[in-house]
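Why run this: before we spend reagent on co-expression, it is cheaper to look at a predicted model of the complex and decide which construct boundaries make sense. The entries below are exactly what would go into the expression plan.
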Amino acid sequence: MTDTSANKAVSDLPLPSLSRQRLADQIADILREQMLTGALRPGDPIHERDTSEAIGVSRTPLREAILILEAEGLVETSPARSPIVADPSLADLSDLLLVLATLEGLAGELTCAKASDAQIAAIRTLYQRMVDTNDDPDTVAFFRTDMAFHRAIVEATGNQALIKTHQQYNARLWRARYMSSRSRMGRIETMRDHADMIRHLEARDAVATAEVLRRHLMQAIANITRILETHSHGPAS
Amino acid sequence: MTDTSANKAVSDLPLPSLSRQRLADQIADILREQMLTGALRPGDPIHERDTSEAIGVSRTPLREAILILEAEGLVETSPARSPIVADPSLADLSDLLLVLATLEGLAGELTCAKASDAQIAAIRTLYQRMVDTNDDPDTVAFFRTDMAFHRAIVEATGNQALIKTHQQYNARLWRARYMSSRSRMGRIETMRDHADMIRHLEARDAVATAEVLRRHLMQAIANITRILETHSHGPAS
DNA sequence: CGCGTGAATATGGTATGCCTAATAACAACT
DNA sequence: AGTTGTTATTAGGCATACCATATTCACGCG
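The model came back. Tokens follow.
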């Protein structure tokens, strides 16, 4: 089946960036999105032939996409095995969250010290959106705004390395943090902590901002620990 | 066709890792080493056909190696250009070092809190090796021991995410830190800081250890800034 | 003499095919 | 009937061939 039309359909996609046109990057984006939506769940295998055919590309760029995701820690490969979606243990998640807490703490300090008032205002806008959508039953939308809030704080630092690393840690922790966000105590605590964050940010209190951010993520560790221990081992398919 | 000898030869191999046999990984190691030795310098292009032929592999695994190194920030790719060895600006190096300082600070805290006495002792052994090789004119050997010392502190945390991220940051900063190490004030300050580190580690003083590690890296920022501003812009080809 | 346009070349991107290794099923022997 | 060996199938790893595009050089025109 020489289906060149599918190939053309992909190349017809708008090219938003300059180097964002590599098929491997686009495929990596697709797979990341599928991990977010749950189409790909932790432990799921990603067969080269099946997946590449499903997306409508050949195996080569799919393999390259797997390489990218492997470097990000989102998939794991074994010598002669299909790559599988990463399924971090509780210990892994705890380790990742502890580093993330430190990174966001640093971001809080830097943003207090260096960000413009306009950037702080933009962060407050995201905070306001969280308040507005607090009653929205759409947990995904609320969570995306939550993540956007944290990301805005990091991006306000202007530190490219920090931004990139934070983004990668967030990708690996997305699922766990989303579960934490859905827990019954999640939202209340989240809103309180975020209110503290924006208050300390606007006061340019670096120490307090960093402290709240770290505590916020440490709480996430506790939440996730409780959730995973409650669910124990038995995620119904 | 029951070639048991070949089977035995394979099983005799030390199994260092589970997936370390991919050509792409081996090629990435080769290229990383060439960056360390200076065979590949910042800005150098990595032509797919030439390089793959020189190593003796096809383009596919070389391309995959490039993907890995790109994810690590060691090479940069442009749409229709040969990938080039990353040549971070002073601002980039400053950003990276600031994050690295934070990561090592966290490592210092964790190691003080969680590491075993044996691990601390192992770190002291590395410190002692630095003292012994302090007069050695071989700057590379001294620097490798320096890096091993820092790595040991991070590995003593047992935090896999931290270890991995620290390793990647170190790889990107290797060259800059090596230059900083060779500056005339480099060694004296390095030895003094390291003496403080091992002392505070053995005293299990988390705050002091983290503080020294952060200050140590901040000093590296200052050193590198001075070096780059002195050299200004003129790397003879 | 300079600038613009077109063609040729080189280079990265993609697809496909072959090779090797692992796994599972089936058969034969104990 | 159970266990072991062998074979077939499947899937990932690598190599190679093809394609699209960008860059550069040359030629011609202004």
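Chain B touches chain A through 33 residues (CB under 8 Å). Residues 47-49, 59, 63, 77, 79-83 of chain B lie near DNA strand C (CB under 10 Å from a C1'). Bring this page to Monday's planning discussion.
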